[in-house]
Predict the 3D structure of the following.
Amino acid sequence: MVTNKRKISILGSTGSIGTQALEVIDRLQDKFEVVALACGNNTELLKRQCEVFKPKYVCSNDAALKIDGAQTLYGAQGLNEICSNKENDIILVAVSGKTGLKPTLTAIENGIDVALANKETLVMAGDIVMPLAKEKGVNIIPVDSEHCAIHQCIKDITRVDKLIITASGGPFLHKSKNQMNNATVEEALCHPKWNMGKKITIDSATLMNKGLEVIEAHHLFGMPYDKIEVVVHPQSIVHSAIEYVDGSVIAQLGIPSMHLPIQYAITYPERYEGIKSKSFSFSEIARLDFEKPDFEKFPAVKLAYEAGKTGGSATVCLNAANEEAVFAFLNKKIKLGDIYTITSQMLKNHKLVKAPSIDEIFEIDKEVRIKTNELIKNYKKENKCLII
Ligand code: MG
């Protein structure tokens, strides 16, 4: 039984995960006290959130921001200050991209549990983050729906033989490879099941998101890559599953909504009714379909497996090159199919660093991003088709 209110801070409170987390907290007001809220540039929404949740600290990219009753912090340093504040029982890291890595490390160093919605943290530095969490006795509870599902299924990780990660298949599941590679930004942003930020929606269209999730799962659960399987499940009802050594399979099911994984992560190990809207009904769902992913059509998944198995800085390169290519696609500079070609070319040219330090990870990340953009620029100039 939790008798005192759990003290929580949210990094990325105005984003998709952050706003849904506050909806959960609003339903569980007697369970939570908000210590700090941090956003990037959406300070108007941050102000409205402060009126309701009254945090002690706020942080944004606006150095001039003033909010009555709260101490204002600024930028990356502000995020680190929040994460070193031992008033916190748990910090929800829901910022996007590499911004999540340093605050997560700071929270772990200070012995504060982390609800992790930022997969880049583990893709970039899982080999540093997870051992540090173990050393400090800190819980890293995944918010990503698939990993949250696996977290709920596991009782004894040493007896788990396989992780089975489900994928909805995105908007191009039943389209041809050619249709997918030449899709418009609007078509690629039209995800059939999940309403998310733009970057992750494009990653879901190419299935790179699933590849990044395989790497995330490898680090979170210490499972070798050949024991992590991806299966396409268009209904997004089975959020993932595990197979024990005796062949027993345990899956976690639920309607596709991020409220549940968020609530699970921030209330763990307790469970509350919270934001549950209606009871689950097998007869309403009627059928669940599963199929093997088409790696020929979605080569990004294979590329992520390869980078993961290579290890070291390969996943830093994968993440940075993919992200820059996704931005170029969103800005209509390249085609959807070019994202894979550019990312795989960057990986091919990458000089591997086997066990990079945090500083080296940030350096490599920066360098890969510059080189990826050079490749994109030259590609435009030469006007050659990169699609293979
Ligand atoms: Mg996911």
